[in-house]
Each structure stands twice: as structure tokens, then as C-alpha cells.
């Protein structure tokens, strides 16, 4: 990627302002520009990987230092244009209310609507098209969770916020309910001031994590994280975390829900992020009954679809094991006892055992009275 030699003179300051304007017109809420120096973040990433805190996400280490050295991933890169898009949908069932009802399924709010990857990538391409119309051919590539990119440190360097103690990006005026996307480019644009940490002494996210995955400020052990366990992990969910999962069947938002900065969060105006298939307050038994064909059809265009039907059933089986011991719940589980997947059967058997223990305990209490 080297178009600098053939490019006519450009006022990069004016171009940066134009890029911000085009970004806002395309539905992004903020655009920031950073250099590509990620040396301090590279050291933290190396230590995180060395400790094995990435779990089975071997792809985190697969590309060497291309993740922390943008010009090695895309030669010629000297700047990164980071873009923020809010996703919190409205109207939407209240998260705490859903989690308090053991018969309902909780889905992380980012996954209720259309898969954001395609939407953001399309908008980033449109942003690149605007730039090309202004300056002619230039080197770039758009990324939305599609390659080894350290999007959070880059967003902080670009002034879009700071990486909070829960390791999500926060902004003091908008909270953390947003997606990030990047354009790597060879345009030597002026860079923005980096975001400043405003977490202070607060530790609500650390205290609220159901499985203790946030092991300290700015330290996440993915192996314990419910988002990792329900989405990235493809094996059996360790039993020590199953009760803590509650009814969370895809992702976990607790650390964001308790964050004081999210009182400033804004609802998204993107219609594609509105809940589909009633996933903001669906019944567990209803979702558990979906055949694989129905799962694929109903979740067409959803980020959830990529975990596959087997992990979908695995996750819901755990939630049903934590659900109230009602006849409908146990009947739904028993209907999957002969599922062809050993992974699903093991989690169904565990769930039924939870209800058996509960009922035995209840009967013991009654006899004692």
C-alpha cells in the first residue's frame, strides 16, 4: 500500500474534518484518528496470552504481532480511522427484569438485532468511497472484528474514550454501548488527543462480574467470562460457572449495566439493531424447542447464528437448569435427552439433576416441618 508518491497535494487537516462529517452523515456517532504506535499495549497483550487468559481463542496468538503492529498487517499503514456506532435499542425489555425471571432468556443487548459486522463494514466502505472521491486512489482496508486488530487501544488513542476496568471502551458522555470499526490507511492525517481514563476508584464492574472474570482493574480472564463461555468456547461449560450463568444464554452485560457512565448512554437510531424474534424477553423453553433448521432460519442475519445450534442448545440447557422447577421446564429438558450431540446431552443431564436436587431438598424441608 503506497499511493503517497502519486497523490496530489492534500490539506490533511481539512480532509480529517471532512472525514468526521462524512462519518456522522453515515450514522457513526464519532470518528477519531490515531497513529499506529501500540508498543505498550503489545506488551500487555503478550503477557495476557502468556498467562493463557485467552482460553481456547488460539486465533488471538496466531498472527504474531500483526495485531499490535498495523503496518505489518497492512504494509504502508500510518494512521487508523476509528469509528463508533451506538447500538442500544429502544424499545427493549429491561435487562435486569429479564435476568430476574428465570423462565426468560437473556441475550446480550448487542446481539438482539442484525449482525453489526456487515452493517459497520458497509458504512466504513462508504466512508472510504467518500475519501477516494476527494483525494483519488489511496491505500486502506476496513475492519470490524474481521482481522487481528487491537480496536480498543486504537479507539482510546483516537480519542473515542478510554479502556475501562472491565476492558470495554467507555466515553464520559455516552457510556459503553457502542460498536467499533476501523479504516487502516496510508493517509498521514493529523491525530486526535487520546482518551483520558475516568474510572477513578470505582470498582462496580469488578464486583458485579458473576464469575469473577474481571480479576482486577483492567484485567480480564476470558476463561471465566460468560461472554466467552457462551460464544467463543466450543466445549463443555465448566460446572463451576454454570450456576453463575443464570439465564444468560448469549453473552453477558452485567459489567456495563452497573457502570455509572452508562447513565449517559444514548439509544441507537439504527433500525437494524432493534430486537428480532422477541429475543429481548423470549422464553427459554420456546428457544430450546427450535430445530436446527428453525434456528438457522429465525437467526438469519444475526451474530448469534455463528455459534451454531449445538452451542445454542448447550447454553439454554444450562439456563433451564437454573430456571424454576416447573413441569414445562423439565419436560423441555427431557425432550432433548436423546439429542445426537454428546455435548448437548451432558448439559441437559446436568440441568435435570439440578431440578432433582432441588425437589429432593424441598421434600426434605416439607418432611422436616
TrEMBL record:
EC code: 1.17.99.6
Keywords: 4Fe-4S, Cobalamin, Cobalt, Cytoplasm, Iron, Iron-sulfur, Metal-binding, Oxidoreductase, Queuosine biosynthesis, tRNA processing
SUPFAM superfamilies in the cross-refs: 4Fe-4S ferredoxins (SSF54862)
Residues holding [4Fe-4S] cluster 1: 199, 202, 205, 259
Any Pfam family: Fer4_16
Recorded superkingdom: Bacteria
Cofactor binding note of this UniProt entry: Binds 2 [4Fe-4S] clusters per monomer.
Enzymatic class: oxidoreductase
Cofactor(s) essential for the protein: cob(II)alamin; [4Fe-4S] cluster
Segments forming domain 4Fe-4S ferredoxin-type: 187-219
InterPro entries: 4Fe4S_Fe-S-bd, 4Fe4S_Fe_S_CS, QueG, QueG_DUF1730
Positions annotated to bind cob(II)alamin: 67, 145, 169, 180, 227, 252-253
Protein residues bound to [4Fe-4S] cluster 2: 209, 225, 252, 255
Reaction(s) catalysed by this chain's protein: epoxyqueuosine(34) in tRNA + AH2 = queuosine(34) in tRNA + A + H2O
NCBIfam families the UniProt entry points to: tRNA epoxyqueuosine(34) reductase QueG
Subunit and partners: Monomer.
Chain's role: Catalyzes the conversion of epoxyqueuosine (oQ) to queuosine (Q), which is a hypermodified base found in the wobble positions of tRNA(Asp), tRNA(Asn), tRNA(His) and tRNA(Tyr).
Protein name, as recorded: Epoxyqueuosine reductase
